[in-house]
## 1
Amino acid sequence: MKTTKTIPTFKNENEEREFWENHDTLDYFDKSKVKKVRFPNLKKTTKSISIRLPVDMIDALKVKANSMDVPYQSLIKMLLQEGLSNKRA
């Protein structure tokens, strides 16, 4: 077991942020006691974008999405994710 340093008390979040930007967390936490946790209900942060697509492409997306019983914007996200995943391999 590793001896760890004591975490100081902070006056505010800015002080705490500055502290952690300049100190290694491994000096303050015993890595052997770390437990893996899951947060299954967290949703990814999304951001709206605007993209111009040809009308016939949008129509084709809507037809395909309808046949799959999914919203067409969800289909677009699925196709983008699939494309990104194929590039990583």
Note: Residues 1-37 form one domain.
## 2
Amino acid sequence: MSSEEVRVVVRVYGIVQGVGFRGFVYRIARSLGLKGFVKNLEDGSLLIVAEGRRDAVEKLLEHVRRGPPAAVVERVDVEYSEPRGEFDSFRIVFE
């Protein structure tokens, strides 16, 4: 297991709004000890920014690719980078 810290910016496309996806990501990210946020975007996609141990981030991505029961995940774009340490917890952003 890698304890290397990473940051991911994830865009999730498909039927991902109005299906409990943000709460799903929130619960998993918190249980994995990740920091960052999840929010809906105007184009109907979902944005996740998460920082933490690489193995925890990979577990989150496994769940995101499946999604909650009512979701239909068509595409997941993932971009890795160095963590910035700007978050103190994981939260849902309502905008």
Note: The longest strand covers residues 5-15.
